Amino acid sequence: MSQKALFLDRDGVINHDPGDYTKNLDEFHILDGALETMKEWFDAGYKLVIITNQAGLAKGLYERHDVDRIHQYLMGRCVAMGFRIEECFYCPHHEGTTGRCLCRKPGSLLIEKALHRYGLDASSSLMMGDKPRDVDAAEKAGVRGVLIPVNKGPLRPADLGL
Ligand SMILES: [Mg+2]
Ligand SMILES: [Zn+2]
């Protein structure tokens, strides 16, 4: 059976996006119900993978250890609820400072990396994000992209008839 995945953007989907950057754990506020919804997807057989642009790194607004600390915290919260995120992939680049890369969404490199690393089936997977570039990245990788409103939390499987 092919392994399906739910790819999730981070800021504005799992945690509250204030409109610029989530620079450290103190600024990382998980949206109401987001973890419960993620567990529903996990229980429905989807591997969970985070795909996030973190251009604040290129801009020197925060450091990799800040990002890693957020992701460790998030993954720990999931484990405590009985499910897991496979991996949090992030792009640390920004065109204006580090030059162009293939991993910043709408680039699809991080999604493709995850598909390969975890043996995931693109055609039965989804990517949920709050920006058109999330959908564009997904579609380049052959994954269905779902645009959701910012800061409302991920859609549930039932919302999509899955
Ligand atoms: Mg976002
Ligand atoms: Zn990049």
- Low-confidence runs of at least 5 consecutive residues: none
- Fold-level CATH name: Rossmann fold
Rough outline: globular
Distance between the termini: 17 Å
- In the CATH classification, which architecture applies? 3-Layer(aba) Sandwich
* Count of alpha and pi helical runs: 6
What structural class should be given to the helix and strand makeup?
alpha/beta
Global mean pLDDT? 97
Question: Would you mind describing this structure in some detail?
Answer:
The chain is an alpha/beta fold and 162 residues long. It has a single domain, classed as HAD superfamily/HAD-like (Rossmann fold), CATH 3.40.50.1000. It contains six helices and five strands. A five-stranded parallel sheet has the order 3-2-1-4-5, with helices on both faces. The mean pLDDT is 97.
Structure, briefly:
With 162 residues, this protein is of the alpha/beta class.
